[in-house]
Amino acid sequence: MTIRVIIVDDQAMVRAGFAALLAAQPDIDVVGDAADGRQGVELSRRAHPDVVLMDVRMPEMDGLEAARRLLDPPPGVVHRPKVLMLTTFDVDDYVYEALRAGASGFLLKDAPPADLIAAVRVVAAGEALLAPSVTRRLIADFAARPAPRRNRSVRLNGLTPRETEVLELIARGLSNQEIAARLVLAEQTVKTHIGRVLAKLSLRDRAQAVIFAYESGLVTPGE
Amino acid sequence: MTIRVIIVDDQAMVRAGFAALLAAQPDIDVVGDAADGRQGVELSRRAHPDVVLMDVRMPEMDGLEAARRLLDPPPGVVHRPKVLMLTTFDVDDYVYEALRAGASGFLLKDAPPADLIAAVRVVAAGEALLAPSVTRRLIADFAARPAPRRNRSVRLNGLTPRETEVLELIARGLSNQEIAARLVLAEQTVKTHIGRVLAKLSLRDRAQAVIFAYESGLVTPGE
DNA sequence: CCGGGGGTCATACCCCGGTATCACCCCGGC
DNA sequence: GCCGGGGTGATACCGGGGTATGACCCCCGG
Hints:
Two copies of one chain form a homodimer.
Chain A: E1 3-8, H1 12-23, E2 28-34, H2 37-47, E3 51-55, H3 63-71, E4 82-87, H4 94-101, E5 105-108, H5 113-124, E6 129-130, H6 132-144, H7 161-171, H8 176-183, H9 187-201, H10 206-216
Chain A binds a DNA duplex (30 and 30 nucleotides) through residues 160-163, 175-177, 185-189, 191-195, 198, 204-206.
């Protein structure tokens, strides 16, 4: 089964070069190319490639926006290609945006041709691949990050399921009445639960409870 | 300038195989090998290699602990090699620990020999490299993460400096009295500020204010 | 010069939130 | 059977938090 690829780059030379390189592989078909993001997205919709090679900087619509549209398609569009981002030289902040958008890889154009070919195969297989410098940055960034909140703060274990539930609703900003309604309880019962939560966690009021919920990872910013 | 490498793995066959493979490269010298983590660390201290190939699972001291010791050496030890982790097959949670410890790469042993050699060179050059499946997971993990909240939520701009200051103290869990004391104000003034904050942000009470502070990135979990 | 926004504070009021105490039910384990 | 923990709830109290209104000061820009 051959890998269907399209190339999106504003430089004709680059398109021609990559196309020649990839088309020479028995397992790779270049099924089209486009000169900017908008055309790229459109082409992808028609040609339904397995992999889209996407330059970052382009006129009309840049590679990031195009990638986002391909990877988070509007309702009705079922096709969802893998996206391999390419950049000419500098490893800038685009990387993060691209990865967040769901790109499967990020390569520098000055990488050896063999790497590009290998990358296409890797990406088509559902795996991911990054340029070494990008990998380094990503790892550094990852390591710097606090540690993925395996926290579930020890103290949180002291709470009963119900109490945890109430705590979470507090952390969502609900009033006692609202919590009572949500859980089908008397307001007083909610108060009782809250009282116990505050006592167990040595908190003064619901505001501190909200803080605790965030700090412990019970709830997380941005959903 | 040749790359000095040591190999740490409990299987003699693996050590021999990798050593032969790498030693055949003109730019790579295998300057030693060890059968467990403890010996590996000791050897590294003596042989000061550029790159340490480290198996994850080993008796005595596993690769993760050994990597941590190499990458975060006790005072007095200046040498700090790059560490390239290897695992036999499964991509388990060790990956994250290894990366957090500061490893420069993570490869599967079933990777093509050429990849291993390339990886050693990449790592020696100060870059990083991961097995595609690891890369995929890392990206997925990265993308899942809230997004570095450079938000400073637009609405937050509507707040005056003083109001923002008060909001932050609320988000730290202080009471009105405490805030007044901290800012050398009358409690009533604090109330006034809070009232305006709540109004401007359409919040009901300080609990919701805390939520807003976290969601907007004004304050962040884990300091 | 004057208007207005930011910052400060007082008085007054109300109610939600938090505390205390007690009580009932259900269930699982000793 | 009894005990204890989890869950539920009522009554009662009070104090902090939030609201409303009005006032004064400072400073800056039109």
